[in-house]
Design goal:
alpha/beta; homodimer; Alpha-Beta Plaits; elongated; eleven-stranded mixed sheet; 3 domains; Dihydrodipicolinate Reductase, domain 2
């Protein structure tokens, strides 16, 4: 199975993660060789800037300008793609590597979310491994945990905090009382958020990861286009305070659930109990919770980003390859993946938090209550603090279990009331 | 690698876990066959009581009186040992199975704690798999997580709640205010604790699991005899209340740490911050926290016992075998395991909680304080509530970082004071 021959790696992309991989493979070389029975050697790299010091001696390593050339280097056994992006050079290079008979390890969730099934088919038909532990939840062994550790189970649901930037922003908003824009600006200064933060704060990054996790959990085709996506731009300090008061935290969650209508996939802000696994996960950490028919709930928490944790995940995949282990890409052979069948969000049944800004005058609450009654939406708790006759005041309530379709209908009607001054803010409650 | 041929299983021991495995393999047969490319079939079993209904049709399955006969059945590919016990029939049968060229899957932590290295050597020299995910932390994929998911890391420390019975008892004591003996009796009535609870409450079961986890984490020989073991019989409702007041929970933890003196392994009650992963894990749940040099901390939480979760772990091992995957038993080949070198507990440096029952009279505190000063033990917080001149009152303090040896010396001196009425209760504080 393994014969002591070095496993030769080509690393495309030497940013934060690529630099971390080089550092890890060098620092823990003896350990890796002891664990796998063979050395893991970086023999070639590609990156835009050749002059930058990456803290590792690269003098004996072949340099390529173009990742696609590195991908077909005849002396490379495994192509490690750390470039990013769903298309363009990353996709070309990965396809070239597979066509040239090389295993591929990637941290690229966008690529997998858009082309995962096609790439898995290519890899498996050539007897190659396509591995991507680092693409979801950073250093947490979430892919291995689901695909192998919980392989005996029908997974009923998987959910988690999949974007550390959003979780950092929401945590900071709560602990400092500041508003979204203010905390985001700080996060950008500190390097926790990108200059263009939209992939993170609009939920796209979490949705990429959720689509990949869903495929692994349910043995189904990656179906990114069916993910319902809402980001955190509309979450206000006011809502975070109300959440606390009601015993909840606001988190951006990715949730995938098998339902009678198909697989439901959604990324949006949720209220979750403060002591639930996701409620208790603050700051830049990620959490993944899987619910299997025999194992029940399993919770995995750790660092979701950063050079060290992501490199740990990339090299775990290399260790598997070096040990001669391989598993179907998404847990079942690509040809046997279940066709994507998306359950519409309108069929969600659950609880809701709603906040309105209304004119404080007699009859407003009666009007809202009548609208809810007409849609069969049953109120659970209702909060209105202080009075300011004739001025804008927040009105907050939570509902008992309600259909999403009815809730949306009620919100549309409420939004059109004269006394309602801003679009209603609705946050789904998940009592995990 | 896999060829569609059924993987034929022999299950020895049909108690709670064995019954769960039969049920899982039957209920999720299609799923398992889809994930592995071949059917997983139970073809033979052994158990003492043939007549008991286990809710699964066993009419086409061969029955053995003796597990050692089942172990050498020529039509069995994998021997699943669910008998338990460090020696006797479980050990004989596992050795017989390996000698007959069969893979072994076991949930038997006692067997592995005492004979793990020898069995690993036997298995590996014959090219066989010895797998034991179910032996540690029930349904949590802790062994796979460490041995494969975090394989790129030098593990610095692993700790966790490894015994659900103890965690249930400690949680009940806190939430109901009742004493140990009372809660234990209830747990026995409910089936959460054995008639003879000593393996659980005296820390032996947790120590077996810790010894196995340590071997996997550090690639070292299983060294059960070096585990320092204290159970929870001495934890009182009083200490649990003081812990709460100080911001801690009392947990029975297993802790393994690489130190300059060797590997430290200990099982004892700890005070951990209420919001730490182990502090937040209540009831029958288990938690495992690993700290790796690149990944930092990873937390895994789930059900540590019960038919379903344990069967999930056993069958995950079968899925690996069916997929043709194998990994060195303890993460590095048995021949390359590091010799056990135990770090003495006397070298521990950390914080301590101490409670005394003293006679309430002038000068007592001064006497205790002088003893601590003489041993260079620096007090952090000190609590004495109420007064009852001439009677017994509790006195509690916590220390700054202190050497275990100095602490033990100070406690011995304090215990000998006339005004100290009971042996001092000391609980180590771990600020994870």
């Amino acid at each position: 199975m393994v014969d002591g021959k070095p496993l030769r790696i080509g690393v495309a992309g030497l940013g934060t993660v690529g630099g971390g991989v080089l550092k890890l493979v060098s620092a823990n070389a003896d350990l890796l060789s002891k664990r796998t029975g063979r050395p893991i050697q970086v023999v070639a790299v590609s990156a835009r800037d050749r002059s930058r010091d990456r803290g590792v001696d690269l003098s004996n390593v072949r340099w390529y300008e173009d990742a696609a050339d590195l991908a077909v280097d005849p002396d490379v056994d495994v192509f490690v793609e750390l470039i990013g992006g769903s298309d363009g050079i990353a996709k070309q290079a990965v396809e070239a590597a597979l066509a040239a008979g090389k295993h591929v390890v990637t941290a690229n969730k966008a690529l997998l979310a858009h082309h995962g099934a096609a790439l898995a088919t290519k890899a498996e038909s050539a007897g190659l491994t396509l591995a991507f532990e680092a693409a979801v939840a950073g250093g947490i062994p979430a892919i291995k945990g689901l695909r192998e550790g919980l392989a005996a189970n029908n997974i009923r649901e998987v959910h988690g905090i999949l974007n550390g930037t959003c979780n950092y922003i929401l945590t900071e908003m709560r602990t400092t009382g500041r508003d979204f824009a203010d905390v985001l600006a700080d996060a950008q200064r500190l390097g926790y958020a990108e200059a263009d933060p939209s992939f993170d704060v609009d939920g796209v990054d979490a949705a990429h990861k959720l689509a990949v996790l869903t495929a692994v959990a349910f043995g189904a085709h990656v179906d990114f286009k069916s993910v319902h996506i809402e980001g955190i731009r509309h979450v206000s300090a006011l809502d975070i305070n109300y959440a606390q008061e009601l015993g909840y935290r606001i988190r951006l969650l990715g949730i995938a659930r098998r339902t009678e209508d198909g697989i439901e996939q959604r990324v949006h802000p949720c209220m979750v109990p403060i002591t639930s696994p996701c409620g208790a996960t603050d700051g830049v950490f990620n959490a993944v919770v899987a619910d299997g028919d025999f194992v029940d709930k399993v919770v995995l928490v750790g660092r979701g980003a950063g050079a060290g944790p992501t490199a740990s995940a990339v090299v775990a995949d290399l260790v598997d390859i070096a040990r001669g282990r391989s598993t179907p890409t998404f847990g079942v052979p690509a040809a046997a993946l279940e066709p994507a069948k998306a359950a519409p969000l309108s069929r969600r049944r659950g609880r809701y938090y709603v906040r309105l800004m209304v004119v404080d005058r007699p009859g407003v609450i009666a009007e809202i209550a009548a609208t809810l009654r007409d849609q069969n939406v049953s109120m659970e708790a209702f909060l209105q603090r202080g009075r300011a006759p004739g001025e804008a005041v927040p009105v907050v309530w939570t509902t008992h279990d309600t259909d999403e379709a009815a809730m949306q209908q009620a919100l549309a009607t409420i939004a059109s009331l004269d006394s309602v001054l801003e679009p209603p803010r609705m946050i789904r409650i998940e009592d995990f």
